[in-house]
Amino acid sequence: MNIHNKKKLISFLKYKNEFQSYGLKKVRSYELVLHWLSNRLSRNQFLILSGILVGCTAGLAGVLLKTLVHYIHHFIITKVHFEEQIFFYGVFPFLGIVLTTLVVIYVYKGNDRKGIGAILYEIAKNSSIVSSVKMYSQIVQSAITVGLGGSAGLESPIAVTGAAIGSNFAQTYRLGYKERTLLLAAGATAGIASAFNAPIAGVMFAFEILLTGVVFSDFIPLVVAAVCGSLLSRILLQEDVLFRFYTRQSFDYYNVPYYLLLGIATGFYARYYVYVNLKVEHYIKNLKFSRLKKAVLGGAALSFLCVLLPPLFGEGYETLKLMTMGNPAVIIENSFFGYLDLGSWTIIIFLVLICLLKAFASSITIFSGGNGGNFAPSLFAGGTLGFLFALICKQFGMENVPMSNLVLVGMAGVMSGVLYAPLTAIFLIAESSQGYDLFIPLMIVAVISYLMARWFSPVNPEMQPMIDRGHIFTSEHDSNLVNSLQLESFIDRNSEGILENSPVSDLFSLIKNGKKNIFAVLDKDQNLKGVLTLDDVRPYLFNKDQELPESIEKIMIVPPAIVHLNDDAVAIIKKFDETGAWHLPVLDSQEKFVGFISKSKILTGYRQLLKEYS
């Protein structure tokens, strides 16, 4: 063996032993190669390589899920007549939600955190560490739900799957917090790009939704991952599976009034959609039923809606394509409305019901036990609203109504208002329709809808509970690091306390023999009654003429704020900021005194994290 090959062998064995020292008994050759590369390439070079690998893997996951669901729908919808489809519409959506719930309960042990909120939670609360189970669990659950007719989208599960792939790749090669977050976002970006065949929209999604408040100078891995995901989607998916629209009109500035009115309509509808989602979620969560009974109830309600209005079945993208072609008769022929003869008002009534009930169908699907997201429902509702708006304009005798364009920009409008993501919506529709000349109407409608949404609520109401709990942030700096702090380590459990009925002289002994400058005043059951600092007792220490109070109870003060063990980092820091205190007492779940937490220690820990993750 020559010297060069011998050096390669030694290097190979070195990294194999290093991997095994981390508990990885079964080491694959490609892992050794990548680990070796991670130590030989520069940081930027390895991140670009990582973006390619994560993007391809997440893109393949997206292609797999889209293909699987497409073939299930193809079998149900195209192989039988409407009279037979009624049976499928009445049974399959019900089975989809119930089976998904059973899988979650018995296979994944009840762990069903889903949607974009799941990614934001992992970024903020878990240092971008996502369970490896999510690399496949979301595919299984959403394929069952949406494949069998759940009125939700596949894009959020694909994004969560991609995020899990990126996070676990970073964990395998022991990358830091910033690199791990970047690759998590790259995986989600690739997933969105493959789902819509829209790489720019995937990048916008990452910056506009996932990385809000996280400042990155690196963005090339996101772009590379998006391109890889989109390319795989374009190469592997059949034309009828792709999210693409080929029918549209050229932009005419004379049609701007149509877009202005549609922007207002989508803004109001987006608010309606979000409101219905929140109400249905609240109603289902408050039901005194088991998880399985909720699934049965939700599945039955969804099946009824799908029988009444078949376009509510599944994602609804095929219906959107029919709308852009401007053929209303095809949309209602496979429904009970096809038997009505109300002239042009039949399709208008049909579309009004779809718009009103789509919000219920999607929220029932997601919150009663199914798995899916609001990407597809918001796009479907927006396209339907745009088509309805165009038909009403024609019904009142208006000429040259750009029907196809109104369907497309309607999709962008509702998505922008529902997800609070105008840039993602604009680029998504522009890319999927190759309608770059539609940027002006897309911007008009998406921005109006977004501004109206912000007028109703400054932040997305769907994310508001997570913001209130400190799980996600809206500030410009990297606040996610705050929740990486292990606050338990900042609590001084050796804090000194004194009984409330003790004489003040006992406190003097504590000060003389101890090193603390703040003391807890307790009752006999260790319940906190008040606090004392050196400043509070200084007049009695150095003024011998000062008459001593009868007991500690007479001079103790009420603490400016109380911290509980289950408080998150953001809430604790907010209490320090509001009170101006440097020490606050900590109580457990039984309201017993635990110790004091120090603001200076938290700030020191935060500075150390900044150094570690910089």
UniProtKB/TrEMBL annotation:
<keyword id="KW-1133">Transmembrane helix</keyword>
<feature type="domain" description="CBS">
    <location>
        <begin position="556"/>
        <end position="612"/>
    </location>
</feature>
<keyword id="KW-0406">Ion transport</keyword>
<dbReference type="GO" id="GO:0034707">
    <property type="term" value="C:chloride channel complex"/>
</dbReference>
<dbReference type="InterPro" id="IPR001807">
    <property type="entry name" value="ClC"/>
</dbReference>
<dbReference type="GO" id="GO:0005254">
    <property type="term" value="F:chloride channel activity"/>
</dbReference>
<feature type="transmembrane region" description="Helical">
    <location>
        <begin position="375"/>
        <end position="393"/>
    </location>
</feature>
<dbReference type="Pfam" id="PF00654">
    <property type="entry name" value="Voltage_CLC"/>
</dbReference>
<feature type="transmembrane region" description="Helical">
    <location>
        <begin position="436"/>
        <end position="456"/>
    </location>
</feature>
<keyword id="KW-0407">Ion channel</keyword>
<keyword id="KW-0813">Transport</keyword>
<feature type="transmembrane region" description="Helical">
    <location>
        <begin position="295"/>
        <end position="313"/>
    </location>
</feature>
<feature type="transmembrane region" description="Helical">
    <location>
        <begin position="86"/>
        <end position="108"/>
    </location>
</feature>
<keyword id="KW-0868">Chloride</keyword>
<keyword id="KW-0869">Chloride channel</keyword>
<dbReference type="Pfam" id="PF00571">
    <property type="entry name" value="CBS"/>
</dbReference>
<protein>
    <submittedName>
        <fullName>CIC family chloride channel protein</fullName>
    </submittedName>
</protein>
<dbReference type="InterPro" id="IPR000644">
    <property type="entry name" value="CBS_dom"/>
</dbReference>
<feature type="transmembrane region" description="Helical">
    <location>
        <begin position="46"/>
        <end position="66"/>
    </location>
</feature>
<feature type="domain" description="CBS">
    <location>
        <begin position="491"/>
        <end position="550"/>
    </location>
</feature>
<dbReference type="InterPro" id="IPR014743">
    <property type="entry name" value="Cl-channel_core"/>
</dbReference>
<keyword id="KW-0129">CBS domain</keyword>
<keyword id="KW-0812">Transmembrane</keyword>
<feature type="transmembrane region" description="Helical">
    <location>
        <begin position="258"/>
        <end position="275"/>
    </location>
</feature>
<feature type="transmembrane region" description="Helical">
    <location>
        <begin position="219"/>
        <end position="237"/>
    </location>
</feature>
<feature type="transmembrane region" description="Helical">
    <location>
        <begin position="345"/>
        <end position="369"/>
    </location>
</feature>
<feature type="transmembrane region" description="Helical">
    <location>
        <begin position="182"/>
        <end position="207"/>
    </location>
</feature>
<keyword id="KW-0472">Membrane</keyword>
<dbReference type="InterPro" id="IPR046342">
    <property type="entry name" value="CBS_dom_sf"/>
</dbReference>
<feature type="transmembrane region" description="Helical">
    <location>
        <begin position="405"/>
        <end position="430"/>
    </location>
</feature>
<dbReference type="InterPro" id="IPR050368">
    <property type="entry name" value="ClC-type_chloride_channel"/>
</dbReference>
